[in-house]
Amino acid sequence: MQPKSTKPYQRTPLIVAGVFLGLGLGGFIDGILLHQILQWHHMLSSVRPLKNVSNIDLNMVWDGLFHALDWVFTLVGIILLWRAGGRDDVPWSSQTFVGSLLIGVGLFDFVEGLIDHQILGIHHVKPGPNQLAWDLGFLVLGALLVLIGWIMLQKSKSQQELEV
């Protein structure tokens, strides 16, 4: 279905909005599930273990900064989605949007896992026995989500080209 505008389709605004929302949501899932509900780790728990009040306070502040960054990603994604929604040259596609979200969540998991778990070692997914397996599983999950999202974007692009 061709939009009213004679301009060609522009999928990029919807994709960028979805990726930013995915980054924010990926961070919130990590922070809420792994930091707060399961309490497997906190932002600095490998370098400042929760053995005294000072370290608990420090980890709480860094968890808060982590959530603030997630909030910024989410807010940017909402603003970009709002702006894309006001354009008549942006085709609305659930497959494009969900694929973009998956890419964002996967990028969050992969980059955060690579930097915080592997390079800096400031925390691990689940410290203790099988720590490396949990960390590598987190990286694989992130890469898999990016791959699934990318495949969804390719399929939605093919479908939209067929419709034109």
UniProtKB/TrEMBL annotation:
This is DUF2243 domain-containing protein. It holds the Pfam family DUF2243. It comes from Halotia branconii CENA392. Coiled coil: none annotated. Keywords: Membrane, Transmembrane, Transmembrane helix. The chain crosses the membrane at residues 12-38, 65-85, 97-120, 132-153.
